[in-house]
Write a structure and sequence with these properties.
6 strands; 291 residues; two-stranded antiparallel sheet; 61% helix; alpha+beta; four-stranded mixed sheet
């Protein structure tokens, strides 16, 4: 089953003790890049959360944030470092006077400077951690469902692109037989103009035609292209479908299309080959977002 690398999931739990909110977002990335935004009291839980994300998220640039709004007013008592506040205030005032700037609101600036206000972070109780963990697990399930839903949309688009390539291949097969008569006529006309029609060695001419027909033959490319497209669809529907494997298959599809184009020797075939390349580019763009 295909999954998107971008995803979003959140969960909120309201209890008497407060409101717990967990949010998980991800964007494309070749590897797993985790950025955790946690309350200071939960720092010791970071290792556990990272391990869970490693196991269940796999790849992507991921932002995990946990926010807790406590209903207990005394849970985080604030203390002010008065000496540091006075120092910051005096420094700000001296600088303002020196620059001839307004000295209003300096106190509000000083109180927001580092280490002035400190909060008493209570240790996380087992009960509270269990509530946060349950909220995290719900957010993670929502996140994975989002990825799966997006993956379904991606899968439908990728199947459509592959079907378009196969349809264009059928058009190539319609035009393919027309190349030999056109080439024979072109070569006959060239030789007649160059050496005269009566001087053409028909045996040698047939040998040359056979040689070039063999050079223009795209039977192998058609067979391999169909095989790669079938394998692409099969891999899409595998339980363990992944973007990297599909990317490798798309490269093989591209090789066959390019070789077919180099052997085309026909304007209609060349136009269809160009359209195949356009479809393949869209496939490659989509695969960047596949897990």
């Amino acid at each position: 089953m295909l999954k998107s690398m971008t995803g979003y999931g959140s969960a909120t739990k309201d209890l008497d003790s407060g409101k717990y909110t967990v949010e998980i977002k991800s964007l494309n990335s070749k590897f797993l890049e985790l950025n955790l935004k946690l309350p200071k009291a939960y720092s010791e839980k970071e290792f556990f959360l990272r391990n869970e994300c490693n196991k269940q998220i796999e790849r992507g640039k991921v932002m995990l944030s946990i926010n807790i709004e406590s209903n207990n007013a005394g849970a985080k008592a604030a203390t002010i470092n008065q000496d540091l506040l006075k120092y910051y205030y005096q420094e700000l005032k001296n600088t303002a006077l020196e620059l001839g700037e307004n000295t209003n609101n300096l106190l509000s600036l000083a109180i927001n400077l580092p280490e002035v206000v400190k909060y008493d972070e209570n240790a996380v109780s087992e009960e509270e951690w269990n509530q946060v963990l349950a909220t995290f697990q719900t957010a993670l399930e929502n996140f994975k469902k989002f990825r799966a839903d997006e993956g379904e949309v991606l899968e439908k688009d990728l199947i459509l692109r592959i079907e378009n390539i196969l349809t264009l291949l059928q058009k190539v097969e319609v035009d393919e037989p027309n190349r030999v008569p056109v080439f024979k006529e072109r070569l006959n006309t060239y030789l007649a103009d160059a050496v005269g029609k009566e001087n053409i060695d028909n045996n040698r001419l047939e040998q040359e035609i056979i040689y070039y027909i063999d050079k223009f033959d795209i039977t192998e490319e058609k067979v391999r292209l169909r095989s790669h497209c079938d394998y692409f669809i099969k891999t899409l529907k595998d339980k363990d479908a992944n973007g990297k494997k599909l990317g490798f298959i798309s490269q093989e599809i591209g090789r066959e299309i390019n070789t077919m184009g180099s052997k085309a020797n026909d304007a209609n075939i060349q136009r269809n080959v160009v359209s195949m390349k356009e479809e393949l580019e869209k496939i490659k763009e989509q695969l960047l977002n596949v897990l």
